[in-house]
């Protein structure tokens, strides 16, 4: 409320072509430092904060916007934690390193992260559905894979997730790097590559059959209702016979 009042006061005194720039400040978590392997250097170590990148996709046989992978990075609190400057690692191991010891707390935070990422993609897809083909970039243009960046913030001594941006390439690179690094240390391979391939192949199959005609014999009953739903999703023209 105080910020809104201050901005309103500034707007009332602005001249033509002037503007007010408002930036949000999010307090970071100031994560604990891991125990040093050698003797600590002189001086107090700088505070650290964490960032999580989530990758989502339109997976066939699953809900739209299902979370595929999560990768986390740690950096110094006074500088943004960017992709490519910190080695990624899994969410559970990151939370343990950051002092979240209880398994229930880690699982609860992972669930909140997944729900927040899927809600972000659902909102983007809903807004995309209202755009015209020209605004989307073409009749067949749509978002199949989306990355959402989150900052691990601290509000009233409680860990909170703050969405920073939506992107695809950077989150994809970070998540693939995290999975590849896990395999080098003996972790079992994840499902990221398979899920990405399923998403891309499903899109290719939809493109191949879009606009085609199919002949449905004996249709019309309630048991065939799934046919109409699938035809709408695949862009098929259904021609019935025998009802």
The percent range for helix content is 25-40%
The largest sheet has its strands arranged as 2-1-3-4
Shape: globular
If you compute it from the alpha carbons, what radius of gyration comes out, rounded to the nearest whole angstrom? 24 Å
Describe the structure.
The protein starts with a helix and ends with a strand. The relative contact order is 0.13. It has two domains: 153 residues; 32 residues, no CATH class. It is 38% helix and 23% strand. With 243 residues, the protein is of the alpha+beta class. The strands form two sheets. A four-stranded antiparallel β-sheet has the order 2-1-3-4. Strands 5-6 form a two-stranded parallel ribbon. It has seven helices and six strands, in the order αββαααββααβαβ.
Short structural description:
The chain has 7 helices and 6 strands. It is an alpha+beta fold. It has a 4-stranded antiparallel β-sheet with strand order 2-1-3-4. A two-stranded parallel sheet has the order 5-6.
Detail the topology: elements first, then pairings.
Elements: H1 2-12, E1 48-58, E2 64-76, H2 91-97, H3 103-129, H4 133-136, E3 145-155, E4 158-167, H5 169-184, H6 192-209, E5 213-217, H7 225-234, E6 237-241
Parallel strand pairs: 5-6
Antiparallel strand pairs: 1-2, 1-3, 3-4
GO molecular function: ATP hydrolysis activity; carnosine synthase activity; homocarnosine synthase activity
Protein name: CRNS1 synthase
InterPro entries: CARNS1 (IPR031046)
What are its keywords?
243 residues
């Amino acid at each position: 409320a105080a910020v809104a009042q201050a901005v309103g006061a500034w707007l009332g005194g602005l001249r033509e072509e002037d503007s007010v720039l408002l930036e949000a400040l999010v307090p970071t978590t100031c994560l604990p430092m891991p125990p040093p392997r050698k003797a600590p250097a002189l001086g107090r170590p700088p505070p650290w904060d964490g960032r999580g990148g989530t990758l989502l996709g339109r997976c066939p046989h699953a809900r739209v916007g299902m979370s595929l992978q999560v990768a986390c990075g740690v950096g110094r609190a006074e500088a943004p934690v960017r992709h490519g400057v910190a080695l990624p690692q899994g969410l559970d191991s990151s939370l343990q390193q950051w002092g979240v010891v209880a398994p229930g707390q880690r699982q609860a935070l992972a669930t909140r992260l997944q729900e927040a990422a899927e809600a972000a993609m659902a909102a983007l897809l809903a807004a995309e559905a209202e755009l015209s083909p020209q605004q989307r970039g073409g009749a067949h243009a749509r978002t199949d894979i989306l990355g959402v960046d989150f900052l691990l913030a601290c509000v009233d001594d409680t860990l909170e997730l703050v969405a920073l941006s939506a992107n695809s390439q950077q989150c994809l690179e970070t998540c693939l790097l995290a999975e590849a690094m896990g395999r080098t240390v003996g972790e079992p391979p994840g499902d990221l590559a398979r899920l990405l391939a399923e998403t891309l192949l499903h899109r290719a199959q939809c493109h191949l059959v879009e606009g085609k005609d199919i002949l449905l014999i004996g249709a019309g009953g309630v048991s065939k209702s799934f046919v109409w739903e699938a035809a709408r999703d695949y862009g098929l023209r259904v021609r019935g016979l025998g009802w």
